[in-house]
Input
Amino acid sequence: MADSTMLTSLFELPILVVDCQTTGASPAHGHLIELAWSWTAAALHSPDVVARKIALPQGATVSRRVQQITGLGPLDLVDAPAALEVCQELRAQTCARQVAAVVAHYARFERSFVEPLDTGLSHPWICTHAIARRLLPGLPRLGLRAVAGYLGYTLAEEKRAGDHVLATAFVWRAFVDLFEREHAVFTLADLMDWLVQTPAPRDASRIYAMPREKRLALPETPGVYHLLSRSGDVLYVGKASSLKDRVNSYFRSPGTLSSSKHELVSQVHDIAVTETGSSLEAALLENEHIKHLAPPYNASLREGRRRVVYLSSNLTESSPVSAPTVMLGPLIRRDERHPIELFAALVETTTPDALWAGELAGGHDVDAAALAAGFALFRERHGLGTQAVVLADLLRLGRELLRARERAIAIDDPDELPVDEQPADSPQAIATRLERILSNFSRELARARWLCRLSESVLAWEDGESPEHPRRMLVIHQGRVWEQGELEAGEPLPLPPGHRRSRLQRQGVMDLGTYDRLRVLTTELRRLVAADKALWLRVGHAEPIKTARLARILLHL
DNA sequence: CGATCTACGTCGTTAGCCGT
DNA sequence: ACGGCTAACGACGTAGATCG
Output
């Protein structure tokens, strides 16, 4: 390389930023599915990016996991050019341009995939991860998303090469700026020197983009908080019984946070809070905000791929809304079919759909014969004979199995329950799995019934310390918070406005948002019961439920 | 001189962190 | 979930220091 480029200011230095998406963790175990690059320099603020999808080689597949994180499946790649063609495009551009270095985040990975290609690149690689380790050693996480987010670039949720190139270029600009201002590193020669001579400091103290005083000034009241990126996007919505304690716990206890939470706090620049009257209301509001905003770090309450379904009583028909003939539910379906529908397939035919086999054995290969043998053993265990199985029998059996399981958990330490050592395709393992599906279904139906009752209810509870304090009250109608207020001591609990609504009417309002809202409410009820708070609950037209009975009901959900 | 302790280097294993 | 790298750790061995 010419000495002149080694002495060019890093701002002006012409670089090539690259990023790729692949199907595996190394070239020996994966293929390129996307390659993006940008010819740029730190001085350039909106670089042009070339992003190319790449066709899969014959017979290659994209794992479910990779499809999920990249959003790229085989269908997205059918019309894509071959790796060779993309490589030639990059090579043609390489010949036509000046470039002093290739920049990538975690260059080791990109390099292992890009270097074997005949791209005509023989330049030094600069790794923004290696720089970040020395420049930002206190950052809780040093992945591209965390580093870029800390510096102010929020990556899209799908991992795509073009976006990653833009983020890496952004990070490079920020680092070049820092180098000049704080480290007397001005040229590529300086940078190479600095990298060699600066080991990553060990016990560096934690750094955050979020100003300390801002979180320390939060109120110690219940409420909902939004963690915001530099650009104001909502990264995460959470609830707290004390906003100050909860939010500050993210920044105090690095040891106990999961790696995705580390990535999250690395990016937080600001926080917005909504105070609520109680933590119960905070939990309900949190659900509403998550449904509305779908923040990237709220995995569990987001809609994701979950759907509400109802099943017919013979389990063969399903519908997203309930109808007089399709009213088992609401159930939550994560995939194409609900596991319980397996029973319909098993009852209907002696050679069940092989598609079910994977579901049954947790992804293992199980053939139809093994499935039939497992079902036969299941019938034998439970005295179901060989005639057609009646759904009512299955439901009763499900309740028995569920009760047996609850007893086993209550008596034994749940960690010491017998672990099934049978191979996944043995009749024993399959029969046991069928039992599990049935008892889970039974529990789901019980929960569905409960949530439907709860959708027309009135709740009052003691939130403050003093029993003289007025009770907080929530009126739930059509699955929503209809009214919230206070109930004076001695004042009786009113009748829910929708207490006359039929089961079908109640099911009619059960979309996923309502399902989750009532589920959250149930969780909060459980918390109040566990905390020994006095509470009064009136579901439907029944008399108010006493705490002890509520505790028993909640136990079985 | 031999026994014991400490300091230091080397080797092999492990845990954690990146990427997809 | 998986591959691959590195920092961290612990086991081990050797050399040198110290002491009886």
Summary: The radius of gyration of chain A is 29 Å. The longest strand of chain A covers residues 32-40.
